[in-house]
Amino acid sequence: MAQWKILITDKFTENGIEALSAAAEVEYQPGMTAGDVLASIPKFDALIVRGRTKVTADVFAAASNLKVVGRAGVGVDNIDLASAQSHHVTIVNSPTATTTAVAEHTLALMLALTKSVSRADAAMKSGRWTKKQLMGSELSGKVLGIIGLGNIGSAVAQRATALGMTVIGFDPLIADADVRNRGVDPVALDELYARADVISFHVPLNPSTRNMIDGQAIAHMKRGVYLVCTARGGVIDETALHSALESGQVAGAALDVYAQEPPGLTALVAHPNVIATPHIAAQTQEAQARASADIADEILAALRDEPLRWKIV
Description:
Elements: E1 4-8, H1 14-21, E2 24-28, H2 34-40, E3 46-49, H3 57-62, E4 68-71, H4 81-86, E5 90-93, H5 99-114, H6 117-125, E6 143-147, H7 151-162, E7 166-170, H8 176-181, E8 185-186, H9 189-195, E9 198-201, H10 215-219, E10 225-229, H11 238-247, E11 250-255, H12 267-270, E12 274-276, H13 285-303
Parallel strand pairs: 1-2, 1-3, 3-4, 4-5, 6-7, 6-9, 7-8, 9-10, 10-11, 11-12
Helix pairs in contact: 1-13, 5-7
């Protein structure tokens, strides 16, 4: 049996390491620097990363034995896909592993935002009883607009429907009939902006989605809208969002992702009408174990030249 060498440079759970170790030599180096990755990569047949490690053109150029890169998670914007293709390296991910975790976090942010949970908690911890100053709103009966109806967007729709929300959605890559099959009423983007009380984003970051929510887009939204983003930083123009929060066009925002991570204590993060979490939507024990198991299976299948479930390139 071939003795492949596999490098893991980001956090990976034990179940995935055990599965890989049964068939290959595994080097687990979470937190490895970019320079160390570049120096070490020539001897490896496979590389596994999460979102931290950047798999650049330089890495692919140096990776003389590399056959496959696995992203333990959904987004692959930290991997230079064009370079992977030109060097004939297969890229796989685990797109379903974190669906439940991210959908639940999205709903948690939505509920916390509309119930002023973080402000109430902060007041209590400082010894203040602010009952009369805090008035929430119900999600039941409200319109949720979802932009991006893949696995996570569809899971959010299902859960929001159970809360009594009307769910409308926009996804140019999915046929209207398929959108309806996911329990969502398909609408044009302008209609979504005009009708939605809450808008949740579930799109990848690419040239067409970068800063898609700019000042012009926000101006077309219903005044007092709530925005929730657990997708990718850079989808929302953060300067425009801050201005809209100041003017009241946006009543509140809940963010798990940022254009720069970590963002530091920016004016947006510090805004009283913003709930900010540090990119933790997928951070559940269950999701991480699933992601490790899924990507271990895909990596070994790629090395064995077997059919792949989630091949990107």
